[in-house]
Amino acid sequence: MRGASILKPNDDKTRTLNKQTLMAFVGEPGDTVQFAEYIQANIQLYSMRNGSDLSPYEVSSFVRAELAKSLRSRSPYTVNLLLGGYDAIKQKPELYWIDYLASSAPLPYAAHGYAQYYCLSILDKHHHPDIDFEQGMKLLRMCTDELKRRLPIDFKGVMVKVIDKDGIREEPYVDDKQVYAA
Q1: Contact 165, 86 (CB under 8 A)
Q2: What is the mean pLDDT of residues 169-178?
Q3: How far apart are CA 74 and CA 179, in angstroms?
Q4: Where are the extended beta strands (E) located within the chain?
Q5: Per-position DSSP letters for 15-61, written without gaps between them
Q6: How far apart are CA 87 and CA 57, in angstroms?
Q7: pTM of the shown model
Q8: Which tens digit of pLDDT belongs to each residue from 82-115?
């Protein structure tokens, strides 16, 4: 039987790939962890060997190529990814959606897993290109309120990680407000 199961409520399904690139993953538990650790190790190895970090676009190209390679093997990875980062050369953030079939697309915003069914319409309506940090946090609050209201499982909350020109940091996010169905 497959479906929404909470194995660990505090499981971090992200990996820091370099100073300004983060990867979030969903999929089969064994595949996701193994693939994420493999990508993390290879990106860090590249940085050590070459003395510079790959840009988010370059990381997404590498990840897509590795997924394409595995797709043609006897044991492909069943993993979907969101890869976000800050490109220091372009001076702008970047976000990529990469699925288990090795499709890659740049996006202005994203959600994956069961949350996408509830959050993408909110993001479609309220996101704009000039959004600042505070507006982004309000938008996240709207999404988490919707998940609490409509997700048919006990919503355990979110872990917020912010990527900007200063790097990756975890942002405190208190989510104890009770939300009732309207």
Answers
A1: yes
A2: 85
A3: 46
A4: 14-18, 21-27, 79-87, 92-98, 104-106, 160-164, 167-171
A5: EEEETTEEEEEEE-HHHHHHHHHHHHHHHHHHHHHHSSPPPHHHHHH
A6: 8
A7: 0.89
A8: 999 999 999 999 999 999 999 999 999 999 888 8
